[in-house]
Write a structure and sequence with these properties.
mainly alpha
């Protein structure tokens, strides 16, 4: 749907189309960063060798 709007804006104003394309690019980058952040949380939950730095009593949930 968003691509249709950008294509429609191109007929109205080139600057408006570029602005829409820029915001779509920002949206995609933010979406990718949030997805990578979810993988980071999964890595923390699943445990790892870095947990050896803590005492066993501190690692209990």
């Amino acid at each position: 749907m968003g691509r249709l709007h950008v294509g429609w804006y191109l007929h109205l104003n080139k600057g408006l189309a570029l602005l829409g394309t820029f915001w779509r690019l920002v949206w995609v980058i933010m979406w990718l960063l949030m997805t990578l952040n979810l993988f980071d949380a999964l890595r923390l939950i699943s445990g790892g060798t870095y947990l050896g730095a803590f005492e066993a009593e501190r690692c209990k949930l």
